[in-house]
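Reply to dn_fold:

You asked what the input looked like. This is it:
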Amino acid sequence: MPLPMAYLLWGTEDYLIDKKIDEIIINIEQESGESPEILRIDADELTPLQLAENLEFSPLFSWRRIVLIKKPEFMKKSGRKQKQTKEYEQVLSTFFTRDNSMQTLIITASEYDKAHPVVKLLEKYSETINFERLKPAEMRKWIMKEFKSRNAEASSAAIELIIKHSFDMYYMLNFIEKLSLITNGQLINDELVRQEIDVWETRNDNEIFKFIDGLMSRKVDESVKSYYRLSNWGKRPSEVLGMMGNQFATLGRIKYYLDKGFNKEQIITHTGMKEYPVTKMMSNSRRFSWDEINRIFDWLLEADYSFKRTGIDNELIMEMLIMRICTGK
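and this is what came back:
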């Protein structure tokens, strides 16, 4: 049976998607008897014209080619870019009318919108596979297998803690690797796992502090990079947005007391806050006028609305929000 000319691999579990990509590559190698050329396309700024150019393939020899596009913008909810989404659909529609016996297209996506024009097209011409978090029994089995491959073993309680505190399988894999190295063949128990989780949470707390400090200091690059580190570690955009709202509410309180002529000790007494955050906020308040603070709360509300009511990518919303706060524009 011939392999599909295209695949749509979607879902929240990137590890499983990447394993499937590896499997597809091996299957194509076995079918053709040679290693395929793999074209990995940077999807961040991919225009319809660039997509069309990359899908053009006229082999001079009998090699196979795989075109891999990971999480392109055009696969996300179309929102206000419906015209451009139609252009991507047209490019792919033209691609599927051609002879693609020597070429395989693989597209990955985090979400699956049945009403999306490109998704509808891919449903018709590609093999579509969903990859979500494994069920608990499957996850336990996978973790035990990964420990065994490293000549390590974990108690049932330790495995349950790993599952509970891990937000994806790549994080779990790194955690398994670290635990296997530091135990050197000894049984991994739940106490050790708790200790390592505490280390991770401390790192996470430190990064939150860096993010807030960069934001209040109005440093765009530092704030954006810190935000994406938090995102990569599992912090959802809505969580970070809520955290930003709380920090600017606190900033407003401190600024209010400063305008009333309160000193640091009086502010600590009235707010119940500790000395260090009060000192930081007193310094930060000088960087923001009341007009700017009011605008920031408007922007926070706009971002929250956009999360819930528009098809705009949440990461893009957050990046634009951070830039607006830092630049005041």
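Strands lie at 6-10, 37-41, 65-70, 103-109, 127-130.
Hope that clears it up.
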